[in-house]
Write a structure and sequence with these properties.
Layout lengths: L8 H4 L4 E5 L3 H12 L3 E5 L3 H20 L5 H9 L1 E3 L3 H6 L3 E4 L5 H11 L8 E4 L19 E5 L9 E6 L5 H13 L3 E6 L6 H17 L5 H11 L6 H8 L1 H14 L9 H8 L17
Parallel strand pairs: 1-2, 1-4, 2-3, 4-5, 5-6, 7-8
Antiparallel strand pairs: 6-7
Length: 297
């Protein structure tokens, strides 16, 4: 049984100011789509330099959109005008109708962020994690309003990928879920609702395929390119599992695998040694210039 609240539907849907914590790959993308949908957005990170880098990446993606004719210069300028940097997390949280945490997949780090956020977060604001694998039940300790907490798992690149996985914690209220679903559609996403289980739906299924592809490469079954081509041409996947792992980040995939191995099954989700070795060598995929493939940086 999920908790009910007495909030009106109008109040539940009043998300106009969004705070995104983390200006990296996922965070700046989330900020981008929220601003493009008409929200005022504040981007927060550990340093002003990180925030500036995230805002610059959004500006770059907007310019590409204009160049390709996917949006007008006027729309791009309006989106950029709704984006702000705020290095003080307490100040940022005090402004929020919705806070989306997009920090690395580290339970203690996320808990510390939520503790700081809840010091100034308005009572009716939604608090969400973009975690791709960590069970929400491990993140709710100490939250003043656990009924307003849920998962919003976006997909990379956020301004292009249509899916948004909405994860309902045991404590999430009906009103909070309804608000999140309405918001997802308003920012142009197709939401699915998933119960709070490690890896949810998308990460669990994607990881199973990705880990097996890495094992096949480790065992010399085929080259990385041919393994990917098998899924792209044989099963109509838009991107093969090894290319996708490079895009997601090998370190991210390793963290997800370790979470699912701990929470679900230590055999099915055991990270292959090749994955551990590449991460240890700093070969994290596209963002580092090399993973299963090499990239121009």
């Amino acid at each position: 049984m999920h908790p009910e609240t007495t909030e009106s539907v109008e109040d539940a849907f009043a998300i106009r100011r969004v705070i995104v914590i983390g200006a990296g790959t996922m965070g700046h993308g989330i900020a981008h789509v929220c601003a493009a949908a008409g929200c005022e957005v504040w981007l927060n990170d550990v340093s002003a330099a990180a925030i500036d880098a995230g805002l610059a990446k959004i500006q770059q993606n907007l310019a590409v959109g204009v160049q390709k004719g996917k949006l007008t210069q006027k729309a791009a300028d309006a989106t950029r005008a709704r984006l702000h940097g705020e290095p003080d997390l307490r100040v940022a949280a005090s402004l929020a109708d919705l806070v989306v945490e997009a920090a690395p997949e580290n339970i203690e780090l996320k808990r510390r962020i939520f503790q700081t956020v809840t010091e100034t977060l308005p009572a009716n604001a939604l608090l969400a994690s973009n975690t791709s694998s960590i069970p929400l039940r491990l993140l709710t300790a100490g939250l003043a309003r656990p009924d307003r907490f849920l998962g919003l798992h976006f997909f990379n690149p956020v301004h292009i990928q249509p899916l948004l996985e909405v994860v309902r914690a045991e404590s999430t209220s009906d009103a909070a879920l309804a608000s999140a679903l309405e918001f997802a559609r308003r920012i142009g996403k197709e939401p699915i609702v998933v119960r709070d289980v490690a890896g949810f739906a998308s990460s669990r299924l994607g990881l199973a395929l990705g880990l097996e592809a890495i094992r096949m490469l480790q065992e010399g079954v085929a080259s990385a390119a041919d393994i990917d081509k098998a899924m792209e041409l044989g099963y109509r996947h838009p991107m093969g599992p090894l290319k996708l792992t490079d895009l997601v980040g090998l370190d991210v995939r390793l963290a997800i695998a370790e979470t699912l191995a701990r929470e679900i099954d230590p055999v099915r989700f055991a990270p292959p040694q090749l994955l551990r070795d590449l991460v240890a060598a700093g070969k994290l995929g596209k963002k580092s210039g090399e993973g299963f493939y090499k990239y121009e940086t």
